[in-house]
Each structure stands twice: as structure tokens, then as C-alpha cells.
């Protein structure tokens, strides 16, 4: 039916129409009215710019709007406004379609703007005349790389098509093309394009191109990241004020050890420099027996024969040179001082305690990747003796006591995180206002059923438990995970954020992400599914971390140098493929593909941008919104105070306070060693060594004690984890929904009043300084965009001023569905499974 309607429609019918528009605009008022009347008889559904100054037209308007004509009613002149497509270096146009209507969410009716829809190898962009944009003085928080109507290919989540008012998911080759295209983005934007007035050939070209370039599996080398790096190799400019520690040199790790006073017990090693541990791995098909030199020749042959028989039934784990890449071991890292460096090479970094951070009292946070599961008794014996020796280097009671936290079996699973976020994000992917109000009355039930906030609470609680062990009990904590690259990164980062005030500065926070996530081997390429090769591997672990950080920022704003806007744009940067920070699985993979390990020494290695250079995305004026004006740096002590407060580890002064506890019969050392070995070998045990009741009591006492005291924003910082305290990150998740905005309210209004008070205090201080003829103190200006808070949205700076809804707070449709007003307060919120929505 759609094909028949297209064939019956003359596609050239709109060509003479621009002449009517131009003539009408240039003619006097009476002639212009006559021309509009004649055009209205030909195209009765059309609103003309002469009748309405806005460029938003109603649904079912003709494609004659393709000609972008701007009519100035005051000056009676016509100017053609060509919207050009701005291409980045290396960016190529792939396909485009004209006469596309982009819908705009506004009340119950759908308005739109006509323009061109284009697809490049970097983004999907809509080019149209939108005169509703803000003036230059009131411009929103603009990104220099991604426009308001731009979608990077990696940011596309799902693509839907509307066929005869039925919404269907689009993928692969299509036999029938939709009349409406809906794109759901990973940053929770929703774009709707009407293709009803577009030529059929262009519809096929643009829809097929978008589906192919966003949904089809890709090769790593085909990412736009490499095209941009090659084309802009001589134009890359780094921010000289960016002092983020990248942890890609041995000097950076030594600096971090010295800063945390961890250099007394730990050392930075370069055993994997140039990834030579990986290159020197034994390339054997039966590599599981590469370390069987401790067995006799007879035992080795017998074990090999059993392996050959077993190979017919199952595939053994092979320690080839790719395993180190999967673990994500960087070129430089930190290990305990007594640990021999040759032990790192035995299992390619698996089973080695990697240092993360040291506390002021000498306790340390470590992480370790588990050894693979094996059935062969000989291999198990080798692994057990290896781990026994490793454990002796970090557990030496009573001076060194270690507590193990197995995150693979006693904490969240990646499947839980994936499922919870899949349900959670559906609350914010709203196609229109009607859909928003229909789900509004059940919103809290849907939110609870997603379990996303509960997962955030569990992460924060686990981090507090580890903080209590290190801060109150002076214990080392060893985090265990299969590859130590997901939950280990999450928990270790949260612990450092709570305990180390340096990590709450912007430079410190960026250095923390570089150390624990980028150099820690988090698989950004797989977890963000940038290559579209395996949807099951896509798990928003890093986004979960940012959401946990937002809870801390929201509860303790003065403790952080950065704002929630900083966290929001950082989450958006996950999908911008001109930065190398979030587009590799490991440092080894990055260096290999950037040509730094290539055999051809004549070829110059590519030089990629880092996301920490914010000048690439934002102007200096916009960057002021990333810095918290309420943050006050920790005052520096003078030399006299510093001399009397010389730092010493508590472990050097006294024995642990928990010494009086009686040890089990087998000894704490032997018991904890067996517990560690069983976890690392894949034979999980159901109960920890310490009883859960005792751990819960210690946690509750530590948690309540800290919250009963006044907060030191430059010391230990704990979040509230009670039910109402864990909130939805409104700025990130609700910023694209007009109905969720509060004009002149929210956090932006509070911040504006605080800035006014700060400016008043500063002006008074300047007057006092002038009277005393002292040097004028530098003025700390707040973001000037916050001055007119009464006109701004609560979701500023991402929401425009005009994006508001005239819908009532309680929709009338919801009242009618519920029945009488008297029964409304008595009825409970209905629980609905989000999977059925």
C-alpha cells in the first residue's frame, strides 16, 4: 500500500513551489496574500512562513519545505540560509536524504522541522533551520565536536521503524522501508524522523546506510578513531593546563607510590615493558603444561596423555600471548617488594597481587586476577604452591594481615548489572509526551522493579565495608575477580574516592580513572560494544561507577572540585570516537594498534587525543560549568606545623589492635591461604572465614560513628546508603524530557543563590583589602550562565529554556483511568514488570 501511494505521488510536484514562495515574499502585502491563497488551494495542509514566523510546522506538510527560506517580515526581504555539514578531519559523507521532517516533542501534538538527514562514517546529523535556538548570550552548553542534532554512530542504541502505525525494530536487510524512523541513543536521546515526503530512493539509501553503519559488526581498525588520528595527526593540540597523570611511564607509578607513602612496602616494576612478558610466552599448543618442570618426566608424560584424551571432550585453557592482553596488565605496575619479578611471567600476570592504593595508616588495597579452572591434579598442585608463595608476601601476621574479597562469587554479577540497566533506561527513552504521562503514574514501581538503584546501593556498601577494614582495622584488602578488570576497577575506585581527598579533585579523579580503568585493563571496547560484535558483553560497569560517584557528589557537594555536569559530559564522551581513552580493551591493545610496537620503525605512530583535554569539546566559558565554585582546596601547612606533624605509619609504632583475638586451630594464616587458593582456582566456598554477623556489626558501628560526627570534606567521606538517599541522576537521565524540567527551580536555582552570596562576600572582602592597602585578592568568578536562574531549567545546562510542557502536573487521562478523586489517595501504586512494557 505504501509503494502504491509513492508511485501515485508525483515526486517533481514541489519543484515550482519555491518560485511561489520567493515571489510571495518579495511582493507587496496584497500580492503576497493572493499568492499564499493560491498555494493554499494547491497544498491545503501547509502553513507558510508568511503566516507564522516559526519554522515548526504541523504534521502531514508537503516536501516543498525542503527549500530553506528565511522570511524577514519587518524588512520584506528573503535570504536563503544554507545549513552546511561540518566534517571533522578524516570524516566522509556516506549517504543523505532530503525533505526529512524531524519531530520535536511538544505536548500531545507533534511538530517538526524540515531538513536533510545525513550519515557519515562518524555520525548521523540532521541539518535544518531551527530558529527556536537560543540567542548567543543565552546559548546552552554546546559541544564543539557533537551538535545538538548529531548522533555518533557508537551512540546509537536501537533503531525502530514505523509501518502503518506499528513500531518495529530494524536490523539487517529490509524488504519494506518505514515511513518513520526512530533512533534511541545510549545517552538517552530519542530522535524521530518522518520519511513520508522523502524520495523512495533516498529513503532506501539513508535507512540502509544508518542500519549498516550502526548495527553491523566492525573491525577495530575500521573505527573512525584511526581515520581521525591519521587525518589530524599534525593538528592535535593538547591542553597545557592538563596535568592528568596517565600512568604510562614508570615515573608516574613511582610518583603515586611516593604520594601515598606506599613506596616502603611496594615497588614499581617494568618487567612487562614493551609487553615482553607477552612476547616471551611459550607458544605451545599444550601450553597448560608449560610450567610442569617441577614434575618428573614420567608424571609429565602421563599428564600429557590424559590431556590428549580429555581434549576430545573439552577445550583446555591455553596460556598464549593473548592472555596477558585479556587480563590487561600494563607495561608498568606495582607489586609487593618481596615478590620476585620472575613470578609475574609464570602465569602471565594471573595470580599476582597488583597494588592499587595505600592508606595513611600503612594498609593497602590490592587486586588479583584468578587463575583458570583446571581439572588436572598436577596443574592444580603447581598453582596451589605458587599461590601459597605469593600469599606469604602479603600476609605476615601480626604485622601484615590481609582480608580477601571475592567479587566474582560474593558480589554482583555482570548479568545483574546488564539486566538492571536494560530495564532502567526504558524509563527515560520516551518517544512522545503521551507516553511520558501514561507511564508517570507507575514510574516509581517501574523504577523499583529495575533494581538499578539497589545495585548502586550495594556497590557503595561494599566500598564502605572495605574502607572500614582499611581505616578501622588496619588490614590489607585483596580484591579477587576472574580478570580483575570490571568489579575490581569499580570497587577500588570508590574506595579511593572515599578515602583519598586528592581523588576528589578534577585532576586526581582523572588520574584515578587512568590508573584503575584505562591502565587497569577495563574492556571499554567490549563493555560499550563499540564494535557491535557481542551484545552479551555490553555491560555498563563504568556508567555504574559514574552513577555511584554522582551519589557522593550529590550528598557532599563541597568535597568535590568537579560538578555533576562534569560527570554527565564524561559519560557522553564514552561514545565519541576521536578520543582513545574509552576505545580499547587494554594498554597492550592500544599500543599495538597505534603502531608503537610495529616492526616498521620508519612509520610514525599515531597520536590520539585524550578525553581529558576538555578544550577539544568545550570553550573556556563552557568549561567553567565543569568546576565546582563551592569547592575549597585544603589549606597548606606552614613549615613549622609540618615539622611537628611528620608522617609515620601506624604499623611502625604499634601492633594491630585486633591482636588479642584467638586464632583458629589451624591458624589464621593457613585458613586464609586455603580460602584464597580455593577462590583463585575456581572452587568457590559458600562462607567467608569471618562470620557475616561480625562483619555486619563492624560495618554498622563504623558507618553510624562517622555519620554522627561533623563532615571533614578533606578527610574520609562516606555516603548515606539508606533507601531514600540513593536517588536518580536526574541531570543525565531526565535532561531530554521536557516534562521533567522545572523552570527556575532545582539545583541550578540553589547554586545561583549561593554564587550571589559568594560574590557579595568577595566584594566586601575587596573593600576591606582596599582600606588596608593590601594586595587585591584574585576574584573567583562563578559560571556566568547561572546568573538568570529564574529563566533556566532544573536540568541546565543541557535543557533549552523553551523546552517545557504545558501539560498539567497530573494528567487528566490518569485521573480518568483511576476513577473518583476520593479513591486516588487510598489506592497503592501498582507494580508492573518493566519487561512487559
- Please report the distance between the alpha carbons of the first and last residues: 30 Å
- Secondary-structure content class: alpha+beta
Give the mean pLDDT: 75
Estimate what percentage of residues fall within beta strands.
5-15%
Largest sheet: 8 strands, antiparallel
Helical residue percent band:
25-40%
Q: Strand order within the widest sheet?
A: 6-5-4-3-10-9-7-8
Shape: globular
Instruction: Tell me how many strands there are.
Output: 16
Q: What is the count of DSSP helices, taking H or I runs of 4+ residues?
A: 28
Q: What ranges have pLDDT less than 50 throughout 5 or more consecutive residues?
A: 1-81, 131-138, 280-326, 642-671, 682-691, 801-816
What is the CA-based Rg, rounded? 31 Å
Would you write up a description of this structure?
By secondary structure, the chain is α+β, with helices and mostly antiparallel strands. The protein is 35% helix and 11% strand. The protein has an eight-stranded antiparallel β-sheet with strand order 6-5-4-3-10-9-7-8. It has a four-stranded mixed β-sheet with strand order 13-14-16-15, with helices on both faces. A hairpin with a 2-residue loop joins β3 (93-106) and β4 (109-120). The longest helix is centred in the C-terminal third of the chain and has 25 residues, at 747-771. The relative contact order is 0.09.
Amino acid at each position: 500500500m505504501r509503494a502504491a501511494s509513492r508511485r501515485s505521488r508525483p515526486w517533481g510536484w514541489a519543484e515550482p513551489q519555491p518560485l511561489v514562495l520567493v515571489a510571495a515574499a518579495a511582493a507587496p502585502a496584497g500580492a503576497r496574500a493572493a499568492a499564499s491563497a493560491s498555494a493554499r488551494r494547491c497544498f491545503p495542509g501547509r502553513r507558510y512562513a508568511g503566516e507564522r514566523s516559526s519554522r515548526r510546522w504541523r504534521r502531514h506538510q508537503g516536501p516543498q519545505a525542503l527549500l530553506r527560506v528565511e522570511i524577514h517580515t519587518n524588512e520584506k526581504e528573503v535570504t536563503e540560509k544554507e545549513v552546511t555539514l561540518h566534517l571533522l578531519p578524516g570524516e566522509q559523507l556516506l549517504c543523505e536524504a532530503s525533505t526529512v521532517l524531524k519531530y520535536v516533542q511538544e505536548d500531545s501534538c507533534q511538530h517538526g522541522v524540515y531538513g536533510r538527514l545525513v550519515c557519515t562514517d562518524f555520525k548521523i546529523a540532521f541539518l535544518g533551520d531551527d530558529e527556536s535556538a537560543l540567542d548567543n548570550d543565552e546559548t546552552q552548553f554546546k559541544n564543539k565536536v557533537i551538535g545538538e542534532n548529531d548522533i555518533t554512530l557508537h551512540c546509537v542504541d536501537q533503531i525502530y521503524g514505523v509501518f502503518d502505525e506499528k513500531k518495529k525494530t530494524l536490523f539487517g536487510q529490509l524488504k519494506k522501508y518505514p515511513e518513520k524512523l526512530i533512533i534511541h541513543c545510549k545517552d538517552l536521546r530519542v530522535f524521530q524522523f518522518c520519511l513520508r515526503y522523502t524520495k523512495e530512493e533516498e529513503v532506501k539509501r539513508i535507512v540502509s546506510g544508518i542500519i549498516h553503519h550502526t548495527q553491523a559488526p566492525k573491525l577495530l581498525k575500521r573505527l573512525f578513531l584511526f581515520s581521525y588520528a591519521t587525518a589530524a595527526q599534525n593538528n592535535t593540540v593538547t591542553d597545557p593546563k592538563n596535568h592528568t597523570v596517565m600512568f604510562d611511564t614508570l615515573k608516574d607509578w613511582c610518583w603515586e607510590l611516593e604520594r601515598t607513602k606506599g613506596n616502603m612496602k611496594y615497588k614499581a616494576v617494568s618487567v612487562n615493558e614493551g609487553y615482553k612478558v607477552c612476547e616471551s610466552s611459550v607458544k605451545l599448543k599444550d601450553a597448560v603444561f608449560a610450567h610442569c618442570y617441577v614434575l618428573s618426566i614420567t608424571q609429565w608424560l602421563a599428564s600429557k596423555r590424559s590431556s590428549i584424551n580429555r581434549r576430545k571432550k573439552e577445550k583446555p585453557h591455553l596460556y598464549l600471548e593473548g592472555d596477558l592482553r585479556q587480563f590487561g596488565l600494563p607495561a608498568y605496575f606495582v607489586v609487593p617488594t618481596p615478590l620476585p619479578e620472575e613470578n609475574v611471567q609464570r602465569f602471565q600476570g594471573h595470580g599476582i597481587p597488583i597494588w592499587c592504593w595505600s592508606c595513611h595508616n600503612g594498609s593497602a588495597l590490592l587486586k588479583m586476577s584468578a587463575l583458570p579452572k583446571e581439572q588436572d591434579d598436577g596443574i592444580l598442585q603447581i598453582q596451589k604452591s605458587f599461590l601459597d608463595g605469593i600469599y606469604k608476601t602479603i600476609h605476615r601476621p601480626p604485622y601484615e594481615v590481609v582480608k580477601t574479597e571475592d567479587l566474582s562469587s560474593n558480589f554482583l554479577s555482570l548479568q545483574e548489572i546488564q539486566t538492571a540497566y536494560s530495564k532502567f533506561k526504558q524509563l527515560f527513552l520516551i518517544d512522545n509526551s503521551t507516553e511520558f504521562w501514561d507511564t508517570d503514574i507507575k514510574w516509581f514501581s517501574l523504577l523499583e522493579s529495575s533494581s538499578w538503584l539497589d545495585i548502586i546501593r550495594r556497590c557503595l556498601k561494599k566500598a564502605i565495608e572495605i574502607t572500614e577494614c582499611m581505616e578501622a582495622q588496619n588490614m590489607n584488602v585483596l580484591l579477587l575477580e576472574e580478570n580483575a578488570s570490571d568489579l575490581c576497577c569499580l570497587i577500588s575506585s570508590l574506595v579511593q574516592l572515599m578515602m583519598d581527598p586528592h581523588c576528589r579533585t578534577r585532576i586526581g579523579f582523572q588520574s584515578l580513572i587512568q590508573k584503575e580503568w584505562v591502565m587497569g585493563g577495563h574492556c571499554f571496547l567490549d563493555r560499550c560494544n563499540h564494535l557491535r560484535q557481542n551484545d552479551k558483553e555490553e555491560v555498563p560497569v563504568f556508567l555504574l561507577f559514574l552513577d555511584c560517584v554522582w551519589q557522593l557528589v550529590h550528598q557532599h557537594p563541597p568535597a568535590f572540585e568537579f560538578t555533576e555536569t562534569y560527570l554527565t559530559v564524561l559519560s557522553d564522551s564514552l561514545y565519541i570516537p576521536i578520543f582513545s581513552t574509552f576505545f580499547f580493551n587494554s594498554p597492550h591493545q592500544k599500543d599495538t594498534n597505534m603502531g608503537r610496537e610495529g616492526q616498521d620503525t620508519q612509520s610514525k605512530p599515531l597520536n590520539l587525543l585524550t578525553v581529558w583535554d576538555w578544550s577539544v569539546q568545550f570553550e573556556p566559558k563552557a568549561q567553567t560549568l565543569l568546576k565546582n565554585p563551592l569547592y575549597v582546596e585544603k589549606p597548606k601547612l606552614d613549615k613549622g606545623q609540618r615539622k611537628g606533624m611528620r608522617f609515620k605509619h601506624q604499623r611502625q609504632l604499634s601492633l594491630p589492635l585486633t591482636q588479642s583475638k584467638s586464632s583458629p586451630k589451624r591458624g589464621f594464616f593457613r585458613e586464609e591461604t586455603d580460602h584464597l587458593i580455593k577462590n583463585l582456582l575456581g572452587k568457590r566456598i559458600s562462607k567467608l572465614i569471618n562470620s557475616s554477623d561480625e562483619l555486619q556489626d563492624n560495618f554498622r558501628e563504623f558507618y553510624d560513628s562517622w555519620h554522627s560526627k561533623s563532615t571533614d570534606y578533606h578527610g574520609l567521606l562516606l555516603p548515606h546508603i539508606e533507601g531514600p538517599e540513593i536517588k536518580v541522576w536526574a541531570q543525565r537521565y531526565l535532561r531530554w524530557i521536557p516534562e521533567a524540567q522545572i523552570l527556575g527551580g532545582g539545583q541550578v536555582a540553589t547554586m545561583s543563590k549561593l554564587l550571589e552570596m559568594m560574590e557579595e562576600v568577595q566584594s566586601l572582602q575587596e573593600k576591606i583589602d582596599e582600606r588596608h592597602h593590601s594586595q587585591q585578592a584574585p576574584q573567583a568568578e562563578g559560571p556566568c550562565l547561572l546568573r538568570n536562574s529564574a529563566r533556566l531549567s532544573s536540568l541546565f545546562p543541557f535543557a533549552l529554556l523553551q523546552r517545557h510542557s504545558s501539560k498539567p502536573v497530573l494528567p487528566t487521562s490518569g485521573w480518568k483511568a483511576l476513577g473518583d478523586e476520593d479513591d486516588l489517595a487510598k489506592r497503592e501504586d501498582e507494580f508492573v514488570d518493566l519487561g512487559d512494557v
